[in-house]
Amino acid sequence: LELADLVGAEFHGDNCTIYGVASLGSAKKGDISFLANGLYRKDLLTTEASAVILDQAELKNCKTNAIVTRN
Question: Per residue in 16-33, pLDDT tens?
């Protein structure tokens, strides 16, 4: 939630603690990741990341906490 506030984004989900950054495919609990390219959408469906930064259009495909950005 604090990170979302810092960047002016919307947080969706439960509060979580982030310890690291990883790709969608290799992320584990405590990691944050991002989706910036639709080619990696399949990894969004199975990621173990505690949170993912993405745009509004991808929110419906996110099964974990999300930080929704405008671009």
Answer: 999 999 999 999 999 999
